[in-house]
Write a structure and sequence with these properties.
- The complex is a heterodimer of chains A (487) and B (446).
- Chain A is of the alpha+beta class and 487 residues long.
- Chain A is 21% helix and 38% strand.
- Chain A contains ten helices and 22 strands.
- In chain A, strands 8, 9, 10, 13, 19, 20 and 21 form a seven-stranded mixed β-sheet that branches. In chain A, strands 3-2-1-4-5-6 form a six-stranded antiparallel β-sheet. A five-stranded mixed barrel of chain A has the order 7-14-15-17-22.
- In chain A, strand 14 and strand 15 form a beta hairpin.
- In chain A, helix 2 packs parallel to helix 3.
- Chain B is an alpha+beta fold.
- Helices cover 24% and strands 36% of the residues of chain B.
- Chain B has nine helices and 16 strands.
- A six-stranded antiparallel β-sheet of chain B has the order 3-2-1-4-5-6.
- In chain B, strand 9 and strand 10 form a beta hairpin.
- In chain B, helix 1 packs across helix 2.
- The radius of gyration of chain B is 24 Å and the shape is globular.
- Chain B starts with a helix and ends with a strand.
- The relative contact order of chain B is 0.13.
- Classes of the chains: A alpha+beta (487), B alpha+beta (446).
- The interface between A and B is large, with 80 and 80 residues.
Amino acid sequence: MNLAADPIQPVIQLASQAILTPSELEEKHLDQVMGKLLSRQVDYADIYFQSSRLESWVLEDGIIKEGNFNIDQGAGLRAVSGEKTGFAYMDEIQLPSLLEAADTACAIARLGQNHIHKLPTNQFTEALYQPLDPLSSMDENSKIDLLKSLDAEARKQDPRVSQVIVSLAAVQDTVLIYSSNGDLNGDVRPLVRVNVNVVVEENGKREQGSSGGGARVALNYFTRDDTALEYAREAVRQALVNLEAVGAPAGTMPVVLGPGWPGVLLHEAVGHGLEGDFNRKGTSAFSNRMGEKVASPLCTVVDDGTLPDRRGSLNIDDEGIPTENTVLIENGVLKGYMQDTLNARLMKTRSTGNGRRESYAHLPMPRMTNTYMLPGESDPEEIIASVEKGLYAVNFGGGQVDITSGKFVFSASEAYLIENGKITHPVKGATLVGDGPEVMSQVSMVGNDLKLDKGVGVCGKEGQSVPVGVGQPTLKIDQLTVGGTEA
Amino acid sequence: MNPEVDSKLSKLKQVVEDILKEASQQGATSAEAGVSATSGTSTTVRLGEVETIEHNNDNGMGISVYFGNRKGSASTTDLSPQAIKDTVKAACNIARFTTEDPYNGLANADEMLQSQPDLDLYHPWSISIDEAIELAQQCEDAALTEDKRITNSEGASVNTASGFHVYGNSHGFIGAYPSSRHSLSCSVIAQEGDDMQRDYWYDTSRVAGEMDSAKAIGQKTAQRTLARLNARRIKTRTSPVIFKNELAPGLMRSFIGAIRGSALYRKSSFMLDKLGEQVFPEFVTISENPLLPRGLGSAAYDGDGVATQARNIVENGVLQNYVLDAYSSRKLNMANTGNSGGVRNLAINLSDSSFEDLLKSMDTGLVVTELMGQGLNPVTGDYSRGAAGFWVEHGEIQFPVEEITIAGNLLEMFKSLSVVGNDNHAPGSVNTGSWLLDHMTIAGDN
């Protein structure tokens, strides 16, 4: 498929064909539904159609144990009036139920004329990924062979490998968004993911390791350049490291974070706190701090939804707005929030293309895409050499933040002690805890080795999960609390 | 039962029967299917004004087919006849590529639930949107007016949902029941100087009238939030720790997670080979009661159609049995415990000690009221999580604490449980009071 000339129309057509055609709906019907949504004092309204197909496979104990296929489709209708939102959704895409849902959704607004101000919206100009179907991008036998090859690769790394679980998932998410701005927008979003989990055993002691990755691509992504074989090797390596690990120290100390996935720090410490909804409501530790210094001058952090093929990237957000590369913090100074249309309107600014929703059955809100810190100038080895006694953490499970107090945690799954500038022995995963703005001001060295994660991030907010990316160069934080057992 | 419910359930039963017939026609040797339809509303008010009104309507069906011992699964939200055909076909297609697995298949026919008891789970709430708005306003207002340091709000919500659930398999078993669940929640922000804190409270029940009043929930939200103001860090140390009643269920769920069949046959559990061993102190009994009338976790049959039953999982601190379903029980060569889908209505035996008694017997230590992060290694039981709560000296709360971690190993933490309080009034399906543990490592200031 050649999308170079005009990438937008073909994608919208694909989305229309997938969603409207089977239900015998045409644009005039959408206008009829929109007319109903706008029949009261409404400031904004949209109809979000979605058709999502997912296929997943699990290998366990050397056999293909499970496979699952899921189809989920439906439409969500939203009417916004001031700060009020009315919302109804259904899993059948039929005109009578759409009209009924429009009535239900707009009941939130008072009777009277709508307040629609049509805004000229941009279309995306360059497709960030192909509108392909990853489920059929590889035949079933090749999928099975891929899983088996990863099982074999993991087991051949070391005789101590006792369990291997490999999973593969492919999703094609097709969306069609009709907003009161008068635009019909669409997107076809492929997403694939492979994960390898292993358990290793030695003298009755067990440990686990896991690795994986993914992107908005076809499944042959995993077979090129040994991409997925590397996940298998990495999972075993991590598990073996943890088999040797001793109790982590407890207390406050310098912490060096490795590049890539440890960027979950940024996601928790600053990312969530800079989402528009919390700042409009004044409930974030970063509220009313625009233009203030909130991090060390070495820190420049962006949220970039425009990276080709990345898990967190989107051609358009779930309100039909093209994604952007938004500077959140520049040289330590707070520069921008991530916005959706509702919060942008109420804060008298514009959407940054961060309005995302888990599905048609959920309301959109400001969410991250790919959040990362730009590289600095330090050599990573020089950073480690600068620490007399501290922790070097290179892999993490997940994290969590309390937006209001700014306190956040993230849990290391692979970490080492640093003694006299050298990495010494591995320590058990420990949770790191800190205060967002305070920790960011403690960043004293930033590496020249920016890396993005391998495409595994899932972000949860108010019960909704969306795929995201994170990244960072090697970082040194002068003081961070490490939650080990060795007090 | 009322005719509307009967009619809805028999429609869904028909869908399940159609699915099973279709699976058989497409060549499956056996099949099982679950279908559900849930609807409700969610009304949120913030600073006295309506923020969102959501009308929810969720349908779903899940199918598994077996060709001998090969299994395929598929699911969809569309319950139309064409979707049934397509979804069964998708599941059958998957089964062409999965491997023969001798442990696969339906649960044994003689384990199916024989006659279905009425567990009294269905109490729809006929509350109008306007009434829901008013109730949410009352709740939030009670929080906002509790103290002038309550300066902002994330709102109060009234949620109500009712649903119909049917499961059937080619043994001829078909189970069906309606259920309801409602909740009322509130979250506000307190401010004093530069310090800003947020907290929440809620209640949830099958029966709307059994929830705490909107006013009580609002007031409790405010009190919890105010109590966190001016929290400090404490020094790194080891000390006794009390897990407040609303957090103790989390420890019980971690225990259950470790004795699930799938964790055991994968040898990825810190409870491996602990059957018949002392895993808690002698005074501990942990039980599940799936047949509790109106229970939030209640169900008469599990996800495989197997009859559930009340049982003790831990007696005198000794692990009596695991948490197994059809697949894992065969794989481990043990009896099926009817736990496909998990445990239902867990409970631990309580002491006579109130929360205040726990504070006194701890004398000096930490009360944890909030945990952050997922810092549990399920293979080793190593536990390290962010925490907030209160520092206690001389058996009395001294000041709020935040930005610390607590760490230990669950095997040792369970053994160091010294008292379970009688303060078993936190909402949810797990019945426990607060837990006093002898010691954990706290990381904070040097």
